[in-house]
Amino acid sequence: MGRKTIARFLMAAAVLSLPLTAQAQTNRRNQQTPGAAQPQARTPPAGGGSDMDFSQPDQPAPAEQPAQPETGIGGAGLQLDVPGGEVTAERHPFNEEIYAVQQISALRNHRLELTPTANFSLNDPFVSHTGFGLNANYWISNVLAVGLTVVFFQGLNAPSDVNLFVGRSTNLVVPINEYQVAAALNFSYVPLYGKFSMFSRYIFHWDLFVSAGVGIMRSRPITAIDPEIRTFGWNTNILFDASIGLRVFFTRSVGLTLELRNFVYPELLESTRTTNPNLPASQRLLERDASGNSNCAACRRNPNNWTGESSLTDNVMLSIGLTVFLPFSFSYHLPK
């Protein structure tokens, strides 16, 4: 067999195997995509031409996703199935901004504080001193202030039952005094401030302050030894005061103030003797001398015999007041 005969045989075998190869490729493609839609045969255009098609096959429609319940804040209520029926859960908006260090609720810097007060004495068992006053403070900074404290007592002083019972049971009289007015220039300082929760619902801001100053106290003895003869006028004494207090804010400008204040001053007491004890007994009860003079050393009507020694007095008082800061509005100045 020559070379030409072998070449002709191989060419004839290749031509015969072409249809079989095309049929095998079609079957393999069908096996890889079972159940897929078969492309429709296209009619060749009239007049001849190529039958090649470059269009994309039809895509299947996407499957519908199940509806998701609304979970956004502020939307409609969420329906919950519970035994006995459906319950709608209410949704409320909330502030997602949380500050690690929050600003002070009520600033005092460069504001005027006015506090009308009611004052009650605590440490005098023989006479009660009740007064109404006003505290006015101007805050130089947020913790330091200078101010004026004034308390009026006249007409509100009253001897206690203890003084009456002691006098009746022992036949002894205790010298007592009454106040007219107290006024002092004070400096205040706030060392502590914070906040607390009440009933797990309300939040109140508070501050603790101390103050001290100097002023005047007008007082006089209440006639107890010889009321038929003696009368006393008002005396003016130097006063030193110190206090500690707590301020609770209801709003940024209004609050309640509780204060414990101590007034320290020298007080002139009534003499427990009607005459000069250094005189002879025959002259101690004289009201006038032989010439009718009532200013003699032994005279009962001599005003020099009405008062005794001065005593350093501590008057501890509890003050309750309503605090108002002016102006009502303020703004924070933060560093750039």
Written account of the structure:
The chain is mainly beta and 336 residues long. The protein has an 8-stranded antiparallel beta barrel. Strands 1-2 form a two-stranded antiparallel ribbon. A hairpin with a 4-residue loop joins strand 9 and strand 10. The longest helix has 30 residues. It is rod-shaped. 17% of the residues are buried.
Number of helices: 2
Task: Name the CATH architecture of the domain at 112-271 and 311-326.
Answer: Beta Barrel
Could you tell me the strand content as a percent range? 35-45%
The H/E string reads HEEEEEEHEEEEE
Q: Quick one: CATH class of the domain at 112-271 and 311-326?
A: Mainly Beta
Mean pLDDT: 77
Which of globular, elongated, flat, extended, rod-shaped describes the shape? rod-shaped
Q: Which topology of the domain at 112-271 and 311-326 does CATH recognise?
A: Porin
Query: Strand count, sense and closure of the main sheet?
Result: 8 strands, antiparallel, barrel
Helix content: 10-25%
User: For the terminal residues, how far apart are their CA atoms?
Assistant: 104 Å
User: Quaternary arrangement of the chains shown?
Assistant: single chain
Structural class: mainly beta
Number of strands: 11
